[in-house]
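Title: Comparing notes on inverse folding

I've been comparing how different people in this forum approach sequence design from structure. To keep things fair, I'm posting one structure and asking everyone to reply with a full sequence. Here's the target:
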């Protein structure tokens, strides 16, 4: 009986070790989210020493390197060069976005002019573009307004890569060809985030946040942010949600 208990105890330990080896845990997630935060901020590959020095992680530099190697092997990080730092993958950003607590999101205070959005749409969209570092697109019926192309093209993903830049400009010049895809991407459940090539324009290095707002009982408008994959998702989701709330309230029958 004693031997049987020891056997199962050893088996449990093996299961626990395997689980630690093959699954995401809180330390790995903390390291991953630190890499994402750093890459969002500076748009360059991130090394383990920087994570150790800058972020409050209870682990040695060697352990952080080991965990970043695990994150790379399991598809959360990518290493462009053998001796270089790492960047987050689409898989990592999906996990990051899923972790955002929509109930405790950023508090966004938009200027008073947004209460007159329909009278000053271009001014409002320009403000949103600059605040979010994104291109903002507004659809109402067959009418499309956008602002912030200059803001988007100022991001290093685009001015450092001619092929990606050309693809982006080509898609935006023909954006009416993608109107149906953008409309179909709207969800009845609120704001939706499409990361990297999952966005309706199929653009590499870009993500899109899309939501809709009520114009009348039978008509909706669509608002979307198109920005770099390393955008500030928490802030931009909160921004879109606040804008949708204002627009829907402004269009309620009085």
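Reply #1:
Here's my take.
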């Amino acid at each position: 009986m004693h031997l049987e208990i020891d056997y199962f105890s050893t088996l449990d330990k093996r299961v626990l070790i395997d689980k630690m080896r093959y699954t995401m845990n809180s330390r790995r997630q903390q390291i991953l989210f630190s890499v994402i935060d750093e890459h969002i901020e500076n748009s360059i590959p991130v090394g383990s020493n920087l994570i150790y020095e800058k972020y409050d992680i209870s682990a040695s530099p060697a352990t952080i390197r080991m965990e970043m190697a695990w994150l790379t092997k399991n598809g959360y990080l990518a290493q462009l060069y053998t001796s270089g730092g790492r960047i987050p993958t689409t898989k990592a950003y999906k996990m990051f976005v899923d972790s955002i607590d929509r109930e405790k999101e950023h508090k966004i205070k938009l200027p008073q002019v947004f209460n007159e959005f329909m009278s000053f749409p271009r001014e409002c969209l320009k403000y949103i573009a600059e605040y979010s570092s994104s291109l903002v697109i507004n659809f109402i019926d067959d009418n499309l307004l956008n602002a912030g192309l200059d803001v988007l093209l100022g991001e290093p993903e685009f001015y450092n890569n001619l092929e990606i830049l050309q693809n982006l400009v080509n898609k935006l010049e023909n954006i009416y060809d993608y109107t149906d895809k953008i409309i179909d991407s709207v969800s009845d459940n609120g704001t939706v985030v499409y990361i990297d090539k999952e966005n309706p324009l199929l653009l590499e290095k870009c993500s899109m946040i899309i939501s809709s707002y009520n114009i009348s009982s039978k008509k909706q408008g669509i608002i979307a942010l198109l920005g770099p994959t390393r955008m500030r998702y928490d802030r931009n989701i909160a921004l879109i949600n606040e804008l949708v709330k204002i627009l829907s309230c402004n269009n309620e029958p009085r």
